[in-house]
Amino acid sequence: MRAILDxxxxxxxxxxxxxxxxxxAVAVDLGLLLLLGVLFWWALGFVQIxxxxxxxxxxxxxxxxxxxxxxxxxxxxxxxxxxxxxxxYIPVWAFFIAALTFMALGWTAALPxxxxxxxxxxxxxxxxxxxxxxxxxxxxxxxxxxxxxxPDNAGPQLFHPRLRYVLISPHQPGTLxxxxxxxxxxxxxxxxxxxxxxxxxxxxxxxxxxKNLLDEELSGKVSLDLVHRDWLDxxxxxxxxxxxxxxxxxxxxxxxxxxLLPLMGLVALVVLFNSGRPILFWxxxxxxxxxxxxxxxxRTMTRDSERxxxxxxxxxxxxVTPVGAFLRKFRLDELPQFWNxxxxxxxxxxxxxxxxxxxxxFEESIPLYAxxxxxxxxxxxxxxxxxGYAADxxxxxxxxxxxxxxxxxxxxxxxxxxxxKTIQTILTGFGAR
Length: 433
Fold this sequence. Notes:
four-stranded parallel sheet
């Protein structure tokens, strides 16, 4: 434990290094913006846009890019281990703002090029952040002197390789400038001078974390034991992002259709030649507010796969065809669910919809299970990219902890993070059955 709770760590130099890396991240954002601006100007020549008009279009795009950077950083919810992810949202904000602006000004010919440019921009930022992440020094959390550094019931997440704990004292308030946040043991009574130090930290917007909140932030899931089932009601849950999310679902699906339709046609032919008809598999699932709907997938199992009733898919499941195993591994069987997104039964991102027979049992046996129905189910989700497929009740409880975290922290930032982790999941085949 002493290797992690290193009270003699060089926190001042670590803080300086982090500030330098933060400025480097800003420089990378601006450098990429200028580089892509030049690339955009050059590429616009291929869509028959003249010199003066081309320069005006690039100038508008650069202004939108700078504005989107300010918007992303000001609205980004900072977390301990995701300090610079605001950069990931700059090309997203910029794309939607630029697309609307270009359509309003009649520059519709540049929209396909705009989508390609922002896709490249997003990939370059992701690569740059990966390198910056590897250069990051450990995050320093302050613990009050005279109180236990870490609660006795601390979970394994608190002993994270990228966290370091340092002592802070009410008699030396300047030490707050050397830490990235404070870990507060809520089981210990605070002396008046300690309470003043905590209030000073909150006024200066230094994060103050309890053990449970820090554990939740590091693990990405909520402890169900700490939430009282009878205190929760769907009417208390409201997110203005839900309306924006629905609009983004429809817009993104329509934009992706030129790519999705040929890909789905190819997969359909493969399924047809491998295992015959039917090509599609329809099944009743539980959607938002517990309303059932029919989900559609490419068939990956034998025709009589449910002759004995609904059952979890297992590793090496004999019901899965050889081609079906490949489709499931890379999530290609889920492509027809973009139809469910257009009909409003699903979202691109959300908790995976469960079969009606399983959901009824889970709602009786698993506390808080119904909370996952407060939002639209998704093609991909926070539980899928972190845990994978749930094959029994125990894994379903663990999956619910991730789903509850998603419902609690529902936001564009979290959805974009899931998109990146989904790409990683597809490339690696993580969690498939």
